Amino acid sequence: MAPIPEKIAVLCHAGAGGSGVVATELGLKVAQAGREVHFVGSAVPFRLAGHRGLRGPFFHQVGGFAYALFDQPYPELAATNTLTEVILEHDVSLTHAHYAIPHATAAIHARAITGRSRVITTLHGTDVTLVGAEPAFRHTTRHAIERSDHVTAVSAFLAQQTREVFGVDREIEVIHNFVDAARFVRVTDPAVRARFAHPEEALLVHVSNFRPVKRVEDVVRVFARVASEIPARLLMIGDGPERPRALELAGQLGVIGRTQFLGSFPDVETVLGISDLFLLPSSNESFGLAALEAMSCEVPVVAARAGGIPEVVEDGVTGFLAPVGDVDAMADAALRVLRDRDLYLSMGAAGRQAALTRFHPDRIVPLYLAAYARTMTPS
Ligand code: GMT
After folding, report:
1. For residues 308 and 158, is the Cβ–Cβ distance under 8 A?
2. To test the ligand 1 pocket, which listed residue (22, 122, 126) has its Cβ within 8 A of the most ligand atoms?
3. Residue pLDDT, tens place only, 227-260
4. Is beta strand 173-174 parallel, antiparallel or unpaired with respect to 232-237?
5. Rounded distance, CA 117 to CA 112, Å?
6. Looking at residue 132, what is its pLDDT?
7. Which segments constitute the Glycosyltransferase subfamily 4-like N-terminal domain (predicted)?
């Protein structure tokens, strides 16, 4: 087996999405393990803010060029070009591409141009289930998966889905996401919680990018049923296209006064740390990183039994799962947890235990380092 490479480029999306979070948290751990890490992207990934130093990790902004002949930007070409510069200038021998489109494609392209830097691609979910499955990107996504030197997926569900959608039979290694259990902890200061809820109120929370796949209207409907039976409040964290519909529905269901839309929020661990229940009714979810972050904060999860969620949330142990769209079942499950103090505490403790064991960085990061060494080993 080849050694773990000294210099690694990480290509990822910068926004508040889970793939950028995982790429950043992993890149920081790899840097802590003594490797020189070069992030490449359209903007500084939001969780990288404050972490760059003279000895790294480094960030290289993807260039762009607007020309009248081009009726749309070419992110893949711009990313390829910047990555090529980084590989050549810094003697990078491995590129970790997070998200197939356009990053794995750009990494493979840069490998062809430079004649070096092997490629490991991590599939995160929507790059396969939504974007990659679009006919407009099908061939390029399949090519990216087939031609990467090594491919990982964040859940067994996603690995299987990738094989089915693209008909590829190559090995796809499953490496689950991890959570920083030292940062995502229960917040016990009552003054922090008092900013959002009265002591007797149950505090429900949802964190996402408010895309249709998240079914944020189900979050509001579940909450409305819960709030009709017990004192409760809902925090909606994040931003995206479905936010206006969720806001309107909260008004229609009479819970607008008990619902707070906080938008994109960098300090998500504090909000999770004071919450009592996390809602994730997505129609599809390759993993559900936000649910894991909630579990680390001892927050039980009520979620849809969709995609890779059952690999993260253990039904009846760390939360409850219900069929997609079954608002009544989710509301019943939420009320069951919130009314039974022992159940609430035992589910919270089990979630924390999962974060400290199966999903701890000390377990997951070495799997990635081993995958890096494998990627460098010619087959
Ligand atoms: O949740 C999103 O829509 C964002 C998306 C992304 O690529 O940033 O998240 C995906 O990757 C996360 C990190 O691996 C997973 O936790 C999410 O489950 C996955 N989202 C979906 O599959 C919808």
Report:
1. yes
2. 126
3. 999 999 999 999 999 999 999 999 999 999 999 9
4. unpaired
5. 9
6. 66
7. 17-183
Length of the chain: 379
Q: Which amino acid is at 305?
A: R
CB 120 within 8 A of CB 94: yes
Residue 84 alpha carbon to ligand 1 centre in Å: 27
| Closest ligand 1 atom, residue 292 Cα | 16
Distance set, CA 52 to CA 79, 98, 285, 369 (Å): 21, 20, 31, 21
Which residue has the CA at smallest separation from atom 4 of ligand 1? 17
CA–centroid distance, 308 to ligand 1, in Å, is: 11
ipTM of predicted assembly, 2 dp: 0.96
- Best residue among 268, 289, 309 to mutate for probing ligand 1's pocket (most ligand atoms within 8 Å of CB) is 289
The answer to whether 79 and 62 are in contact (CB under 8 A) is yes
pLDDT tens digits, 163-202:
998 899 999 999 999 999 999 999 999 999 999 999 999 9
* Spacing, Cα 284 to ligand 1 middle (Å): 9
CB under 6 Å to ligand 1: residues?
A: 17-20, 22, 99, 124-126, 154, 177, 209, 211, 213, 284-289
Question: What is the atom index within ligand 1 of the atom nearest the CA of 127?
Answer: 7
pLDDT per residue as tens digits for the range 293-344: 999 999 999 999 999 999 999 999 999 999 999 999 999 999 999 999 999 9
Domains of the chain: 7-178+360-376 (3.40.50.2000), 190-356 (3.40.50.2000)
